Structure formats: C-alpha cells, structure tokens
Amino acid sequence: MSRTEQLQDQYVKVGSVNTRYWQAGDSGKTVILLHGGGGYIELWKHNIFELAKHHRVYAFDMVGAGRSDKPDADYTFDFMAQFTRDFMKALEISKASLIGASAGGGVALTFAMDFPELVDRLILVGSAGLGKEISFLLRITTLPGLGRLFSSPSKTGMALLCKRAVYDSQLITDEIVEEFYQMATLPGAAKAILNVGRSNFNIWGQFYQPIAKRLQTITTPTLIIWGRQDPMVPVSHAQNAARLIPNAQLEIFEECGHWSSIEHPQKFNQLVLEFLS
To answer: Which end of the chain is more exposed for a tag (fewer CB within 10 A), N or C?
Structure first.
C-alpha cells in the first residue's frame, strides 16, 4: 500500500460543489495546501505526511480541479479565494496557514488580502499573480483554437507539460504522466483548466496588477519559495514580492524549476516546518 492510499478521500459540500479533500495530522497549526492550475491533491504526496507530523493539514481539489465538481464559471483568483473561505466554513476551520503553489499561490495571496484575520502564515511556492511574465507555452493556450494541449489531452502532451515544470526531467515518471492524464480527461476537466488560464492571463501575460498593487498591505508573515530555473514564472517575481511584502522571507532553490515541493521535498518540508514553528 502506498502512503497516499493510507489517506482516505473525503468529500464535503462547499455550497453546491462536491469537494474532495484529504486531512492528516491532529496537532499544531491548521495548514491548508492549495495546488496549482490543472493540479490535484496527489501533487502534495511528497509533503503532506511530513507536515502532518507536526500540524493538522488539509489538502483539497480546488473547485474545477481534480475530483471536485467543475461548474461553468470564471475561475478568477477572487472566485477561488472565496471558495477557499467557504471550504473553511464547511469544515469549521476558523484560521489557517496557507501554502499556495503556482495558481494556488495567487489564490492564497488574494485570500490573505481579503481575509487577513483568517490567515496565520502565508507560504507562496512559484506563485502566480506577482508579475506579467509567464511561459509562452501557457500563454498560447488562451488563444481560441490553440488550447488543444488542454482541451484534447494526450499522454504526450501531459509529459511535455510535466517535464517543462521541472529542472530535471528524469523526475517525471510514467506514473506521474499517467496520473496527470487521468485527471485531465475527467468529465469537464479540460474546459475547467482552460477557464482557469483564460480567467487569469492572456497571450500577453498574467493579470497581475490587482494583486501587485496590494502586496504592501499584507501583514501576514510570508515565506516565498522559488526555483532559480523556474521556466513557468520567473524568479524575478519572487524577488520583487519579497521587497514589497513587509514581513517576507525569500528562499530560492538552486537546480529547481516550478515544482520545488516535488523536486526538493526534503528541503521544502524542513523549510516550511521551521517557518510554521
């Protein structure tokens, strides 16, 4: 039995959305893990067990992702931040530390700005929403007719995307590609993934100004983790955010792409646990 199989899929109604989540650990701080666009909770399998040794950890499939329901909606960061708030209400979570990766970082940032009293610590991992520049591969998917990599998923396409996200492509196993493919071909998944992209960026780049203009208002202690060789979102976004967020700590991982929590899990977990303590 794999470690992820030891975690039972649970479901909770968040409004009308049937939402899949995992919960591990029963002491310490409450921590919520927010995956990136096109992601799902299994992407945290390298982290959730270590974090749960010291904290009560939740990971959920964001509305429109994984095995949660996928309503027809504009998947803006505002929409997903409100969904996160509603998820906390549904499970009677009064306050939490948020760990947001990629698009999940944009959600976590928006949440921290809109509901600062509900956030204990904020951890941003290759976060979206901090600058205009993003990978051309992502930007072209917003063009009509050119989003086929997502709208008609193939294992070859999924392998390309996964290898693009890491520094060492040998980390991308057939198992990871198969997992991504299975999630991407669930009913409604392809449309929802495209909606996430088109709600938050276009061919010119990210819609970052609503977040960037408010970074100096964040009072929550913030840890920013980034891969030096991140090909999706440049490390300059992290450096700029660390200057603007008043109580921010920046950690840049060498020989690391967009998925630092997967590429360097031991270092990532240790750093997060130290920050949360």
So the answer is: N
CB contact at 8 A, 155 and 175: no
Q: Is 258 a catalytic residue?
A: yes
Q: Is 102 a catalytic residue?
A: yes
Please tell me the total count of domains within the chain.
Answer: 1
Q: How far is CA 44 from the centre of its chain?
A: 10
228-238 pLDDT per residue, tens: 998 888 899 99
- Which uninterrupted H or E stretch holds 195? helix 189-200
CATH code, 81 = 3.40.50.1820
How crowded is the C-beta side of 145, counted as CA atoms within 13 Å?
0
d(CA 265, CA 189): 27
Domain with 220 in it: 4-135+209-276
Q: Calculate the average pLDDT of the chain.
A: 88
Indicate if 169 belongs to the active site. Answer: no
CA–CA gap between residue 133 and residue 207 (Å, rounded): 10
Please tell me the distance from the alpha carbon of residue 245 to that of residue 247, in angstroms, as a whole number.
Answer: 6
The pLDDT, as a whole number, for residue 197 is: 64
Does residue 143 sit within a domain?
no
Q: Is 108 a domain residue?
A: yes
In the set 68, 102, 199, 260, the catalytic residue is 102
Express each pLDDT in 126-165 by its tens digit: 998 887 666 656 645 655 655 555 567 788 888 988 898 8
Q: Which of 234, 241, 274, 276 is nearest to 258 (CA)?
A: 234
Catalytic residue among 258, 260, 261, 264: 258
Question: pTM of the entire structure?
Answer: 0.91
**pLDDT value of residue 1:** 42
Q: Say what the pLDDT of residue 256 is.
A: 97
In a domain, 109, yes or no: yes
